[in-house]
Design brief:
Elements: H1 3-14, E1 18-23, H2 29-38, E2 46-50, H3 54-70, E3 81-83, H4 89-98, E4 101-104, H5 106-114, E5 123-128, H6 139-150, E6 155-160, H7 172-179, E7 185-188, H8 193-200, E8 205-211, H9 215-236, H10 255-264, H11 273-294, H12 297-311, H13 323-332, E9 335-340, H14 351-360, H15 362-368, E10 374-379, H16 385-407, H17 409-417, E11 423-427, H18 430-442, H19 444-463, H20 467-476, E12 481-482, E13 485-486, H21 492-523, H22 525-533, H23 537-552, H24 554-565, E14 573-576, H25 582-589, E15 596-600, H26 608-611, E16 615-618, H27 623-635, E17 642-648, H28 652-677, H29 700-703, E18 721-725, H30 733-739, E19 743-747, E20 754-755, E21 760-766, H31 767-776, H32 778-789, E22 792-798, H33 822-832, E23 837-841, H34 844-855, H35 863-868, H36 889-896, H37 906-912, H38 916-921, H39 924-931, H40 934-945
Parallel strand pairs: 1-6, 1-7, 2-4, 2-5, 3-4, 5-6, 8-17, 10-14, 11-15, 11-16, 16-17, 18-19, 21-22, 22-23
Antiparallel strand pairs: 9-10, 12-13, 18-20, 20-21
Helix pairs in contact: 1-2, 2-3, 5-6, 9-11, 9-13, 10-11, 14-15, 14-21, 18-19, 19-21, 19-24, 21-23, 21-24, 22-23, 39-40
Biased composition (Basic and acidic residues): 520-535
GO molecular function, one term: single-stranded DNA endodeoxyribonuclease activity
GO biological process, one term: double-strand break repair via homologous recombination
Amino acid sequence: MAQFQEHIITELLEDSNGGLVVTSAGLGLHKIISSLFLLHHHSQGCLLILSATPSQKASILRTYENVTQSQISDEVQNSPAEITSDLPANQRLSLYSSGGILFITSRILIVDLLTRRLPTTAVAGLIVLNAHLLSDTSTEAFIVRILRSTNRDLYVRAFSDRPHSMVSGFAKAERTLKCLFLRKLHLWPRFQVYVSQDLERDPPEVVDIRVPMSTYMIGIQKAVIEVMDACLKEMRKTNKVDVEDLTVENGLFKSFDEIVRRQLDPIWHTLGKRTKQLVSDLKTLRKLLDYLVRYDAVNYLKYLDSLRASESFRSVWIFAESSYKIFEYAKKRVYHFGRSDSGKLGQIKTASTKKRKLNDNKKDEDQSTSTENRVVLEEVLEEPPKWKVLLDVLMEIQEERDKRALSGEEKDHLDEGDDNGIVLVACKDEHSCIQLEDCITNGPQKVMREEWEKYLLSKVQLQALPKRNAKKAKELKGFGVLDGVVATAGKKAEVSSISKQEHDALLAAASEISKRINKDTNAEAGDQKHVDDGGFGKGKGKGKKKKSSAGEKTNNDVASTDKAMEGGFSDEVFLRKHDQGLDAESSSETKKLPPVVFYALESDQKILDILKPSTIIAYHPDIAFVREVEIYKAENPLRNVKVYFLFYEDSTEVQKFEASVRRENGAFESLIRQKSLMMIPVDQDGRCLGLDSSNEPQSVISQNLITRKAGGRREAEKEIQVIVDMREFMSSLPNVLHQKGMRIIPVTLEVGDYILSPLICVERKSIQDLFGSFASGRLYHQVEMMSRYYRIPVLLIEFSQDKSFSFQSASEIGDDVTPNSIISKLSLLVLHFPRLRIIWSRSLHATAEIFASLKANQDEPDEVKAIRVGVPSEEGVIENDVRAENYNTSAVELLRRLPGVTDSNYRVLMDGCKSLAELAMLPMERLAELMGGQKAAKMLRDFLDAKYPTLL
């Protein structure tokens, strides 16, 4: 453990109330938390850990186990346990009373607290991770408020390693402290004195390698940035977003989409389709920049093809001036397509050059399509420049080790630092790890050829889809942007014909590859199976299986390709292969490479302390991983650690890395200013009072008291209760209701989400859930059940506070009923269930006010009765019960369809007679009394007494 981590723990322990710790990314929070576990004793009570992600939990547990194994002591406690929904209530209670360390979800904990299964005095403290996600309406804040109200000795220690998220919104850090009832904010940036001293005392040896991008990669990056800048200029024209945030540098980060969307959410319904599409386009363009430096040329082209198919008729960015360069350069990285004059391969025309010739002179086009000319599809298969550099670095590492071994230095290194010789290569994702592993094993050229063959075979599989889909795609080809030309009505045929020739050439090339793979698969089926079972790690096996599965499908692929070629493309196709003979060279070089382990950064697993590598290659540099390497070296000063950083020179990769450092430093500077100015209300003992401390929650009855009555004495307040379904604790509404002074009773309800009184049942729907419930038909069933068992069924439609309070703009609401309109669906629902009441709520707090007004002058709901509503019973029919068996649904539906029976009198009829047979025997006077009039009674009597017509 580094010294600055010990300082963090010391600062936390100084305040018995706890504190909020915000650190830079990658400074080892899992080690700090595991050390806090060692300080906990079961006699204090249980220690609960909230909001831990699976990767965080795994890292904390692994670190804790390593520490406890090194300590030969009787005081070492058992390893932390995890409480899940699978554990029954009695087992959870025994774990709570054991005083151990427990990982638990906030949903389970709040239910156990409200049902009093967990005594608040049994909790010694809380550790809350990812504190940047908390708000005053979050369930974690609900838990802390309940525990603080009865347990004054409770400590809360919250952690976050996302400083930029702690400065989003107004006074985010201050509000987070208040909702956790904390006073102390501990800031630990990378530039803090203790941190910088520890990490810079004996830093690792760093080699910064700047890899030049290929010409086409530079062209694609420049084109994407130009298109992104054009989209940002269009966005600025709306005058509805903060212009300072709309920069290309901010656009490189994932949070940029969230920032723009957060600004536009309140007015989203007033925006036009173009502005909404621009928000989506900026996200797509950010991915294009990221994928350019992450993936190979073939996979990048495949991603662009999917974008062209899915977004070409909606996206704004595709119509930008520079967008055609993105598609054109990406294609040139993989293959060139053109014609050879009289069979010669000397002059190969690209698709764009040929297109200009077609547009200039159509007669020349007719002459050029003679049968003497052949279409040439030349493979390029440009390898990512980093691949060769990675192989060179690995060979260099091995050469240095060989030299040291010959000179006798290797033994000294082993004695000093226990060097195991592992080289760790850190990549962004699992796909990159698998591909690089294959590249080292089989050579770059073979990997690119496999990707190229998969790409061609995917074209064949698309061609084999039903004809109606292909016909639809063909009709749409004339619009949008295709190969750099904005297609108009006059150019539609020409653009489509060029694209078809190129497409058919790819199909012909795929046909050759399919036949060859089919032969290889049949000849080497046994050998291929043997290769699948072996190899280095699981990634290689996956790659081989994909290849074999592609080979198994080749019979159908060849047939579909031959069928596609019939009458479609008559010219001869010549496939010019790109083979530099590197496979043999690379395969011989792989024998000289050191042992390599690939690590995916997205898995967020802390493996440096496990593998203990001597050499680390940051293939995709990440700021958090850089700090992890620094801590790893600081904790192992005797180990010789060498780090290679691979950056694409003058790329957005470098810009994004440097911008992330600036953004983090700026966030900490803002937090330091906020810390000097924030005001936290405290009580006489110096404890934080939390949010809205000046206005303690009071019940509605106490707020409406007439103080002049009875000399100002307050009457005994009646506790306001709301029965809440267990599933509703995924939302923040129970928390807000508790803030308003209502008692929350969590139970499992079969009908409804909230029971406000014996008569009122509420089904709450968020906007997203409402659309989904209409699509699945679930809402109809839910309203039907509520109408059956409760007199006042209520559908609550709840909007988010930061979003628009409408489904759609008024101009989009039509006069007619349409199946796709949400307004039409709601209208039909109300027509079918006349007693249903729809309540529109602007926010969570507005919902709480509505519930309070609905509960005025109403009896409190019965918990036992609410649980039994709609639940099947094994005992059969029980008198005066509300279970499902006691309702003859078919008989009620028949009664409601009889003439004269309405929604206002059918319940009276059910109370007045026990069965339909008894109803048929009732005299006219009794019917008129029950149905509320002679007219309705006569309609029913005439219907019941009408003779059945005969055929004679």
